[in-house]
Amino acid sequence: MKKNALFVLTILVATCSAHAPSIPELRLTPGEIVSGDKGESQIGSSKLAGVHTKILAGNPAAVGFYSILLFVPPHTTIQAHSHRDDRMATVVSGTWHFGYGTHFDEKSLKTLPVGSVYSEPGGVNHFARTAEAPVVVQISGFGPTDTRYFNPADDPENQKGAD
After folding, report:
1. What are phi and psi of 38, to 5 degrees?
2. 29 vs 32, 33, 58, 146, CA distance in Å?
3. H or E element: which one contains 16?
4. Which domains does the chain have, with CATH numbers?
5. Three-state SS for 88?
6. DSSP structural state of residue 64
7. DSSP of 119-159
8. Cβ contacts of 107 within 8 Å, gap of 6 or more
9. Which stretch of DSSP H or E encloses residue 90?
């Protein structure tokens, strides 16, 4: 019995140690984040022109943990939308103006400077705006993620078809 238990334990340890890490080794300073490769992805973003993401870990379109950097240009307003997954975020650069609700409401925005943390609970509508400077936000969640605008007319993909 002890030999069987030891054999099973040995196999488990060998199997666990043989797996590759689930996230990459990554070290980025704030300057490297802002000046580095910004990526071309729109996964997990607002789908607005000029807004894009860089995937740091995982795959936001698949089941599992993911982490992205969201890059938002100056003078950008993101209308009310939600994501299916719970997400946590940290403002890496710039000043982010963020609020919760089904419609963009400037009075409901809270100013979040660098280092601020906020949540995007799954299915809860939220909106945001940048001012004179671009903003970078690091967002983590457990995918798959998506973006659903409260008002379908605000969805940039629907606006493309109207042109």
Report:
1. -95, -5
2. 5, 6, 20, 28
3. helix 2-18
4. 39-149 (2.60.120.10)
5. strand
6. E
7. EE-TT--EEEEE-SS-EEEEEEEEE----EESSGGG-HHHH
8. none
9. strand 87-93
Which neighbouring-strand residues pair with 140? 67, 88
Alpha-carbon distance of 41 to 22, in angstroms, equals: 20
The residue type found at 31 is: G
- CA–CA dist 65, 80 (Å, integer): 24
Q: Is 95 helix (H, G, I), strand (E, B) or coil?
A: coil
**Which tokens in the block code for residue 123?**
């299915």
DSSP β-bridge partners for residue 72: 135
Residue at 99: amino acid letter = G
Collect all residues with Cβ–Cβ distance below 8 Å to 159 and sequence separation of at least 6: 153
Residue range 15-48, pLDDT digits in tens: 444 555 678 888 888 888 877 677 777 766 788 8
In this structure, what token pair is assigned to residue 159?
């606006």
Longest Cα separation, the chain: 72
| Dihedral of the alpha carbons of 30, 130, 141, 124, in degrees to the nearest 10 | 160
The model's pLDDT over 63-111, given as tens digits with 9 standing for 90+, comes to 999 999 999 999 999 999 999 999 999 999 999 999 999 999 999 999 9
